[in-house]
Specification:
The chain is built from 18 helices and 13 strands. It is an alpha/beta fold and about 475 residues long. The termini are far apart.
Length: about 475
């Protein structure tokens, strides 16, 4: 394990892969709404290197510009807004936009400040005063699609990505990075001392958990159940194994009334959760997510199941900690991961697309952004999991490369169950009610049949105010 590389690359760099279920984030953000006061030393070094390239870089850009055929009929200007609260995002976006402007001298993309942490409100304000950007990082995609503010992306652009999120068959966003992939982060030193290897099947994983439990010196798993959204990590894993593997449109069918939460696959989800959670630490229901790193680095738990954002937190807590990572296979032997393109990403405004030159320029920029040599800049700056079919060659820590590789070989990549849109979008608050009901089952205060009945009752009430199949509650 390259400890120095891990600390340098991962610390504070996971902003592009935010928790899909974290904290009830109304923005469904694909990038963390966090600010930064100054650039990292790596950013400063990159800037210095760029400046030192001098005339050689200018010559290369000039030559590229001369060889680039014009794609617009007249000089064209575009406004571009992205969430600029993270220094890595700011540095990479500026570098890529500058390269584009040099390559296409008859197109000028102007970056407007994105106002960091208040990004979603900022975009709403720009829209309300008639200054909606031509190209933007889009987060509240469903709302803007329903309002007719976004232009569907061309098939040529959509084909660049492994997976995308569609609304009625149309894709409106080019995913900046893959969804935050959950997996087991484990104490590699502890595994090596006990001659344990990474499990390759679900049964092997359960056997490993039992072996750790039998040894008795630490809990097999640490779970931060006090934060209700944390329960979504394992719940989605089981739900994906049991429900989505059989019916990817299960929620849509619940809206239509052809299925409900008494389905055998839902009951199997609860059963799988009961099997796994017997290996969680004592008091998991009162442990906050903020403490799970402490359990791992202080030899109180051998494994945690969470997203890649935890790499930086572990490196900060203990730079000497040797961590490993593996994906937990499904009971049927397949590997299903949270990953691929989510609902957010780069989008083109419907208004800009009315101008043929602006549309052509905007599409050219998106294709330019995701060209491997340019996309590499973004992914390395933010430790983002590439979402493209043609993956750039990245220089990242070993443990992060394992996640990237797993995304490339997984049988299924998709957003979490609560990160889906269109006819599979959950009613407000139904996610949290499900997690609370799950905890009751795991604590033994409610049986599975009763839990399914409660979910059905709440679903019927929720559908009265929100049903994307019928259009109720859709603005």
């Amino acid at each position: 394990m390259k400890k120095k590389l891990l600390a340098a690359v991962l610390t504070g760099a996971m902003m592009a892969t935010v928790l899909s279920g974290c904290g009830g984030n109304a923005d469904n953000a694909s990038t963390a709404d966090t600010g930064a006061d100054s650039a990292t030393e790596a950013d400063v070094a990159d800037t210095a290197q760029t400046e030192n390239e001098g005339t050689e870089g200018e010559a290369d850009a000039g030559e590229a510009a001369e060889n680039t055929e014009s794609i617009v009929s007249a000089p064209t200007e575009l406004t571009y807004i992205f969430a600029d609260g993270d220094e890595g995002a700011k540095a990479s976006m500026n570098e890529i936009v500058n390269k584009f402007n040099e390559t296409y001298p008859d197109i000028t993309i102007t970056i407007e400040p994105g106002n960091g942490g208040a990004y979603s409100e900022f975009i709403k304000t720009k829209d309300s005063v008639g200054e909606f950007p031509d190209v933007m990082e889009m987060r509240d995609t469903a709302m803007y699609v329903r309002a007719g503010k976004l232009e569907p992306l061309s098939d040529e652009i959509v084909s660049l990505f492994r997976t995308t999120t569609a609304f009625d068959g149309k894709v409106y966003t080019a995913p900046l990075g893959g969804e935050n992939t959950n997996g087991i982060i484990y104490n590699k030193t502890y595994f090596d001392e006990n001659n344990w290897t990474e499990p390759t099947t679900y049964d092997e994983f359960i056997t490993l958990c039992q072996a750790i439990a039998d040894k008795g010196d630490m809990a097999p798993l640490v779970v931060g159940g006090q934060d209700i959204w944390h329960m979504g990590f394992w719940f989605h894993k089981a739900y994906n194994d049991q429900v989505l593997s059989q019916d990817p449109d299960f929620i849509k069918h619940c809206y239509e009334g052809s299925k409900d939460f008494s389905d055998d696959t839902v009951k199997a989800t609860f059963e799988e959760m009961k099997t796994i959670m017997q290996y969680a630490q004592e008091g998991w229901v009162s442990t906050p997510d903020a403490q799970i790193t402490t359990f791992l680095v202080n030899d109180m738990a051998a494994m945690m199941y969470s997203g890649t954002h935890m790499f930086s937190q572990i490196a900060q807590a203990d730079p000497e900690f040797e961590m490993g990572w593996f994906a937990v296979p499904s009971p049927d032997g397949k590997t299903r991961l949270v990953g691929g393109g989510g609902v957010g990403g780069l989008a083109i405004s419907a208004e800009a697309a009315k101008d043929p030159d602006k549309k052509a320029a905007a599409e050219a920029f998106i294709k330019f952004f995701y060209a491997p040599e340019n996309y590499k800049i973004y992914c390395e700056k933010l430790s983002a999991i590439p979402s493209t079919v043609e993956t750039p060659d990245l220089e990242v820590a070993d443990v992060f490369q394992e996640v990237i590789d797993a995304n490339g070989t997984a049988d299924d990549l998709a957003p979490m169950w609560n990160g889906r849109v269109g006819e599979n979008e959950l009613p407000p608050d139904f996610r949290n009610f499900t997690y609370k009901t799950l905890i009751e089952v795991l604590q033994g205060t409610r049986d599975i049949d009763s839990a399914c009945d409660e979910l059905n009752k709440t679903w019927q009430v929720s559908m009265q105010s929100f049903n994307p199949v019928t259009g109720v509650g859709i603005e």
